[in-house]
């Protein structure tokens, strides 16, 4: 079965650089979520999109932005990277934004900021 | 504020023994509760969920969870632990925001260690 695909799996950047993470949801899933998991931390909700519109916003820094495209894939753009941005970034998708639908997570993109 | 709490950072169990990973929640309205498992350097995998109905929910890999409304708990259980169950377990709750969009928020996680 198709899963949530994230790329790249690993990314190394310098401080103040920019990074872009991509997420391809499960086919026919119209909602995408982004989470950030720091070392030894629980996943923190960043932002979500439903039908290409932002549906909810969490603890996402102003330096970060995201969007969902017409093919439902999503990109998380991170600028002016800081050391504290080093984390595992997860994307998840679900069939709809509401209800008790299960979120299916990708394997994550590990960002290291030097 | 809606939240979940996992009071134990780590749980150690001998293989073959029953295990319990604790979770309590605080939500307004009826809770939608989930358990996810995370293996090293991997994404979160769905184990089970409670929406309504029977308080005992069965999930993947022989896990089950018991919803207790009076104690606002949703403890994860397994009758006989396997070494391969060793992983990080997250309890989660669905949160509905003002926009009626929903997301799930996670507890702090419990590291389960099963010794042979």
Structural class of chain B, by secondary structure, is mainly beta
Biggest sheet overview of chain A: 7 strands, mixed
Q: List how many beta strands of chain A DSSP finds.
A: 11
Query: How many strands appear in the DSSP assignment of chain B?
Result: 12
Order of helices and strands of chain A: EEEEEEEEEEE
Query: Ranges of chain A with pLDDT <50 over ≥5 residues?
Result: none
Shape of chain B: globular
Q: CATH architecture of chain B, please?
A: Sandwich
How much of the sequence of chain A is in beta strands? over 45%
- The level 1 CATH classification of chain B is Mainly Beta
- Assembly state: heterodimer
| CATH level 1 class label of chain A | Mainly Beta
> In percent, how much strand structure appears in the residues of chain B?
over 45%
Chain pair sharing the greatest interface: A-B, 24 and 26 residues
Distance between the termini of chain B: 40 Å
CATH topology of chain B: Immunoglobulin-like
* Succession of helices and strands of chain B: EEEEEEEEEEEE
Q: What Rg of chain B do the Cα atoms give? A: 14 Å
Which structural class best describes the helix and strand composition of chain A? mainly beta
Radius of gyration from the alpha-carbon trace of chain A, in angstroms: 13 Å
Q: Quick one: CATH superfamily of chain B? A: Immunoglobulins
